[in-house]
Structures are given as C-alpha cells and as structure tokens.
Specification:
The chain has about 140 residues and is α/β, with parallel strands linked by helices. Helices cover about 25% and strands about 35% of the residues. It contains four helices and eight strands. It has a four-stranded mixed beta sheet, with helices on one face. Strands 5-8-7-6 form a four-stranded mixed beta sheet. The radius of gyration is 16 Å and the shape is globular. The two termini are about 15 Å apart.
Length: about 140
Amino acid sequence: MTSDIFKELNMQAHLRIARPVSDLQFAKTMYCQGLQLSVIGAFEDHQGFDGVMLGRAGMQYHFEFTHCKTQPVRAQPTAEDLIVFYLPDNHEWITSCARMLTAGFQQVAAFNPYWDLKGRTFVDADGYRVVLQNARCAIIA
C-alpha cells in the first residue's frame, strides 16, 4: 500500500544515513576510500556538532557522520544494522571487497548467514556494518 502512495504522489526520495562516530576524520577516510565516496558537504561547530556528508553525484543517498564535541554519542549498532550494496558484476564486487579491507574495514561473519551466501560483511571502527552483496537486488524491477 505504501508504494502505491509514493507512485500516486510521484515522490522522489533522497535517503540520508546519519550516524554518530567517534572519529570524524577516520570515518570520512574509511568510507571515501572503501566505498569510493566524496565529500559533498561538511559543517563545524553547528550547535556543538561537527559533521561530514559523503556521497556521489547522481546517487539517491548519502551518509552523514557527526561528532558532538560537548557530549559525544557512542555508536551502538547491532549485528543486524546493515547497509547493503548490491554489486552483480563479480569483478567489481571482488575489487570493492579488497578496497574495503585496504580502507580499514574488517571482514566479519554475518549475523544472518544469508548475507554470507553471496556477500561479505565489513565492520567499521564504530561497529557499523556494510554488506557488499554479489547479486542483483531481487525486489527491484
């Protein structure tokens, strides 16, 4: 039903994935190198927060990483809090997995074994997980 409402309204959504991090510069470097993202925006001391937005031109999503100087928020992701990227081209997937390791991500076993069948799960310094899945997303027409 929800998808019918979006179609009816012709809604074009842009997704921002906002996460607190313990080291803003380190998170920026890891995600830029690992996922080939670029800085698309940044701010300093915005009511006590510093932040950076990472993305790519033409994409319908971006990451926002923040750090509060006055009351740092500790990240508390679970093993099932995932960002999943579908990479159906095998060469692109292998290259991307290697790039994640070079950027400082650690490869871990997925909590849900489904993600290990055709993918690899990586964790960043704050415990956030990214899955690179060597498949097409089955629900996208």
